[in-house]
Amino acid sequence: MDWPGWPQQDAARYRAAGYWTGDTFGGLLAGWARRYGPRTALVDGPRRWTYAELDAEVGRLCAGLRRIGVKPGDRVVLQLPNGAAFVCLWFALQRLGAVPVHAMPAHRRAEITHLVELSGAAAYVIPDVHARFDYRELAAGLPVERVVVVGDPGPYGFTAYDELAGAAPETGAGPANASGLALLLLSGGTTGLPKLIPRTHDDYAYNARASAEVCGLTAESAYLAILPIAFNFTWACPGVLGTFFAGGKVVIAPNPSPVTAFELIERERVTITAINPPLVPYWLEEHAAAKPDLSSLRLLQVGSARLADDLAWRVGPALGVRLQQVYGMAEGLLNYTRDEDPDEIVCTTQGRPLSPADEIRVVDEHDRPVPDGETGELLTRGPYTLRGYYRAAEHNATAFTPDGFYRTGDLVRRLPSGHLNVVGRVKDQINRGGEKIAATEVEGHLLAYPGVKGAALAGMPDPEWGERPVAFLVCEGDAPSVKEIAGFLRDRGLAPYKFPERIEAVAAFPLTPVGKIDKKALVAGLHP
Ligand code: OOB
């Protein structure tokens, strides 16, 4: 078995309560095309698709994917920047019954090789060149049979996206099973190599539909996709999928700049969008300078890392929009502040669980519940939270409690109202303004550097990013510089956002009482 699903009893409960509807994404798109046919579904630069047009385009792409040999059940790694092609291909794979694997544009050879091998991918989809990186060169060295290129396919014998579409579109739901695998999301990770998160049609559709309800989306809503479109937050919280459930319009931002965002908000009368905390000061600054018309914008979602309270308080008055804090994870559980919550709650908490069926435990180091208001690790179980990672039986044995609660690794306080305050983390991860870095993954690479005998990656507090990665190294001879390490990690094919931004040579590591490297002590000893 590749991944453990929900026990039958829980699945029956989620179906009976109407959370799981038995719909697949291929069928959902066909249904939306019937219901919302002539309404605008998608806007990307000058190009626009109605729901009917999107459904037809997806049908043609589905036929094209089948023609090049992609089969139901196949995994396909999607690594595309924000653009309509991601949306069209994602649904084409759904209609075919294949499974998209969500890679990020920032990923490089190390991450993609791992994703391709772990998922056993039958195909890999890339842009030609994006942000000055040629993805075709990366694809040429990979153990994957089929490569589809959005743009110029180059001299490698890859398939051009523009020539993929078949003449006879495939319609309807396709062969997928609603309780089966719909997509694989990438985990932020805490150990060695990134894990894959299995999401089913039933659970992921509920994730998006319930999020759309909580955010008050309607057919008049317009969602602006600013953060990477493959990111769970942007794709389904409520994001692109939630907007489609409501019959609204999705507008794609080609880059995260507030200048671009403000132009699109004005032009398309955007009503809701999502950003991460590091973007908030840029929004405030650009807003004060350019005075854009944001009158259509009703809700600004901020999440993926802790938003400082003082910044949160400034958003509403400065921009004239309602703030929503979102504390979510690719593994499932989503927390939102609600429209009816008082400002105090919206500006100082990270929301409360999306679903009445989300089960929350806040526990001490012995898994014993702590009282409300006290800090503990958050454990959770529910209708859209995984019960185990994909092809990771060994890891699953410790990442979940015996009764199926996922150990989030986040330290939270629960208020009597049920709202959560994220106060820290027990997992060995660095959150660089929303980008998650698994310390041990990077440490493994650092240890391969000549002369490095010990390596510990930790997060140093940073006013802009929340934290930034710093590498503590025990070296034979002189420690390498930040630049030398960056060159080394680039050659090893690691995504640049994981590179240490500071190197500290140490003679030896301080240890905790149980003999682990004491990263808190290392960070505390940093001079500014
Ligand atoms: C989102 O998902 P991931 O999988 O990239 O990261 C999840 C982790 C959480 O466990 C937590 O450590 C951190 O990111 N996090 C936050 C937060 N939102 C996420 N920490 C503090 N405050 C917040 N508001 O990041 C994600 C997925 C769906 C929706 C929103 C975010």
UniProtKB/TrEMBL annotation:
Residues 441-516 form the AMP-binding enzyme C-terminal domain. InterPro entries: AMP-bd_C (IPR025110), AMP-bd_C_sf (IPR045851), AMP-binding_CS (IPR020845), AMP-dep_synth/lig_dom (IPR000873), ATP-dep_AMP-bd_enzyme (IPR050237). Coiled coil: none annotated. Residues 32-390 form the AMP-dependent synthetase/ligase domain. CDD domains: 23DHB-AMP_lg (cd05920). The keyword tRNA processing does not apply. Keywords: Ligase. GO terms for molecular function: acid-thiol ligase activity. Gene3D superfamilies: 3.30.300.30, 3.40.50.980, Luciferase, Domain 3. This is 2,3-dihydroxybenzoate-AMP ligase. It comes from Thermocatellispora tengchongensis.
